[in-house]
Predict the 3D structure of the following.
Amino acid sequence: MKKINKVVLAYSGGLDTSVIAKWLEDTYDCEVVTFTADLGQGEEVEPARAKAQALGIQEIFIDDLREEFVRDYVYPMFRANTLYEGEYLLGTAIARPLIAKRLIEIANETGADAIAHGATGKGNDQVRFELGAYALKPDVQVIAPWREWDLNSREKLLAYCDRHGIEVERNNGKSPYSMDANLLHISYEGGILEDPWAEPEEDMWRWSVAPEQAPDTPVYLHLTYCQGDIVAIDGTAMTPAEVLTALNKIGAANGIGRLDIVENRYVGMKSRGCYETPGGTIMLKAHRAIESITLDREVAHLKDGLMPRFAQLIYNGYWWSPEREMLQAMIDESQKPVNGEVHLKLYKGSVTVVGRRSDDSLFDASIATFEDDAGAYNQTDAQGFIKLNALRLRIAASKGRKMN
């Protein structure tokens, strides 16, 4: 690795990244720039400035990225109805390409020749950060302290703080879980969750009420779509971040969005995680509803067939890749007629679609009706259709080929 003069650190202000800031200075004899992203994690990010200043950091970046996060990352992902392994709404994965992008932008602005992050050598985030960084700045140097140092426990990190006079919070009541939060979700790993048989403790969940404790009266929502994106709730126009914030609040109050899964990490291991994604759960259900009346059948089926690949690209860290951009262009093209309204009922953890309508609807009641269709559909046409589609099956059967 070449001599590093300046490094941009993805900085949360917590124990790990506070240690990393000092460790980088000592180990690489370099200047450290900190970057803290507000992605709607529900905690104040401004205190990170004071913590960085206490460490002697001269260049400090704290950016409110909530609108950009939802508009340019969450919304494009939801246009594809994206689920990883059929369940995970990718709340952590979708935030990483934006952080990587901003790290590189700051590196370019400040003349830094390296970036650093606090992801461990076991997880997916190291891959996501670094793939994004290399795609956007191929000659950037990346420092991942967890792959280099021997400070592999909380006790060792605290001892390092004592030796170097780093002020950190020493909360003995610290959560046993490793958590990540943004406007889309909050995740939990570690602690008793490392036993896939152990049920999560109720007090682990931070955002949502238990479905059993949700209100006994259902709540109705009216969502308005424009080219696949929600633009209004109950008739009130909102920005993307405002939409997700509002849906999180109402979804969490109704016990919506809890998930407990074992997923396959890109690095090869299985990992058990719990997630709360109330707004995203509502968005997925509603988007499929508006697509059901506005998308051509073959377009919808093609999207569904490609979705697992799209999800895998995001999960594995390939947001900044030509294949993701190619798929995104196709997905976005499909969304041009996805306009209209969806009516939802939220009740004790469930999201039910109770209505959908659109000026671009392909649903034709005069054809689909069980009543007299006045000649809109000639039922005798079905006979030839079926026989043509059965032709290969009939030929095979006539040649003695038996189906088991």
The longest helix spans residues 297-316. The CA atoms of residues 326 and 332 lie 10 Å apart.
